[in-house]
């Protein structure tokens, strides 16, 4: 899956990893995207911060007791720390550095507990104006918690529990019998919102997996599973951007098979397809850990890899021609032989990007084919 959003670090602590669990078999790139959603944007974050601080300050002005003063202090400290960490995390993500995800998640849990603490002491104060205001604030925060944290449904459940759970405890301790209704309301609300968070998360993961699969299909050859021409274009825009003064070059080899059509004609298209898959596998084994193999046409392949100079690229082309001339066993009783003609170009010598170098390699391929089969030619 492709994303233009700077990546945020995955959690490393056992507790925070558990909080962000999104189900089995979730690919790492989707997990990273879900973690990114937890950091949200500054305006959304500011709305929640201003609400909780304003409510705590208003109630403290009404009843400046030590418990309410402590609530104000806790809110200011926690919200300030979360704001500083949020800004720092976004900057770190843009630089590709760790984003303090574990601490950020833990502060979110503490913030949920601070909201619950405020509701708890407000109810026990028997000031029903303060209790109403704090409980409304806690309930309003639940919507924000679900909206901002749908990427981690367990985190949603924990934060709702810590925000509204203390209301149940305070209601049980209160002498007001009518407040005992919260012992039924809040648990059902907690369960309903948690289920909604899990379902939303599951829907989101399914959608992201579908997008990921569609993106993979668009950029990969259905037969060989190798990147196709669209994958080559994407690689040229993201992976291969070699500066002209770099000592390391990128070799681009444009490969056209010799003798593939007779195999197709003699043994059928199924045998031809199997041969293409085997050729892709052989090229993958030759390219090295940093190289890439693309199938961009019927029997046309492209291999890219890092090379120090022309001689290293030439040596690889020689090796490739030798390996490609070895027989391919299609069945226990049928083996076939094909060859490869290759055009070789290098970045930045023959172009500053893969596509420009590929055009040069295509012209060199025509020269190689004109000289005969199983040859390579370097772009001029």
Automatic annotation (TrEMBL):
Keywords: Membrane, Nucleotidyltransferase, Transferase, Transmembrane, Transmembrane helix
Bilayer-spanning residue ranges: 32-56, 68-89, 101-122, 128-147, 154-174, 186-205
Keyword Nucleotide-binding applies: no
Pfam families listed in its UniProt record: GGDEF
Gene Ontology molecular-function annotations: diguanylate cyclase activity
SUPFAM superfamilies with a match to the protein in the record: Nucleotide cyclase
EC number: 2.7.7.65
Enzyme class: transferase
Entries under InterPro entries matching the protein: DGC-Regulatory_Protein (IPR052163), GGDEF_dom (IPR000160), Nucleotide_cyclase (IPR029787), Rev_trsase/Diguanyl_cyclase (IPR043128)
KW Transport (keyword) present: no
Location of the GGDEF domain: 248-380
Protein name per the record: Diguanylate cyclase (GGDEF)-like protein
Organism from which the protein derives: Caballeronia udeis
């Amino acid at each position: 899956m492709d994303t233009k959003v700077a990546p945020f670090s995955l959690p490393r602590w056992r507790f925070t990893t558990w909080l962000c669990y999104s189900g089995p078999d979730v690919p790492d790139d989707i997990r990273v995207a879900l973690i990114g959603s937890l950091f949200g944007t500054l305006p959304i974050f500011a709305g929640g911060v201003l609400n909780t601080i304003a409510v705590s300050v208003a109630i403290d002005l009404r009843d400046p007791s030590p418990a309410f003063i402590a609530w104000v202090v806790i809110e200011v400290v926690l919200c300030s720390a979360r704001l500083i960490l949020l800004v720092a995390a976004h900057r770190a993500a843009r630089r590709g550095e760790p984003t303090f995800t574990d601490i950020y998640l833990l502060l979110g849990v503490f913030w949920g507990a601070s909201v619950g603490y405020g509701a708890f002491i407000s109810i026990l104060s028997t000031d029903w104006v303060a209790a109403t205001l704090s409980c409304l604030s806690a309930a309003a925060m639940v919507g924000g918690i679900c909206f901002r944290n749908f990427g981690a449904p367990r985190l949603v459940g924990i934060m709702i529990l810590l925000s509204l759970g203390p209301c149940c405890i305070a209601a049980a301790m209160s002498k007001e019998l009518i407040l005992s209704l919260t012992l039924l309301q809040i648990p059902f609300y907690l369960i309903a919102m948690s289920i909604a968070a899990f379902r939303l998360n599951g829907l989101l993961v399914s959608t992201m997996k579908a997008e990921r699969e569609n993106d993979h299909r668009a950029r990969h050859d259905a037969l060989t599973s190798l990147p196709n021409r669209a994958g080559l274009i994407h690689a040229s825009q993201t992976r291969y951007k070699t500066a002209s003064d770099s000592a390391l070059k990128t070799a681009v080899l444009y490969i056209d098979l010799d003798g593939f059509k007779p195999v197709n004609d003699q043994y059928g298209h199924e045998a031809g397809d199997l041969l293409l898959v085997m050729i892709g596998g052989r090229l993958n084994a030759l390219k090295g850990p940093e190289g890439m193999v693309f199938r961009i046409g019927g029997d046309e392949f492209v291999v890219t890899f890092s090379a120090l100079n022309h001689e290293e690229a030439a040596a690889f082309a020689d090796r490739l021609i030798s390996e490609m001339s070895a027989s391919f066993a299609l069945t226990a009783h049928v083996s076939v032989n094909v060859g490869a003609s290759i055009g070789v170009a290098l970045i930045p010598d023959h172009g500053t990007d893969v596509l420009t170098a590929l055009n040069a390699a295509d012209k060199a391929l025509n020269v190689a084919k004109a000289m005969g089969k199983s040859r390579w030619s370097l772009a001029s």
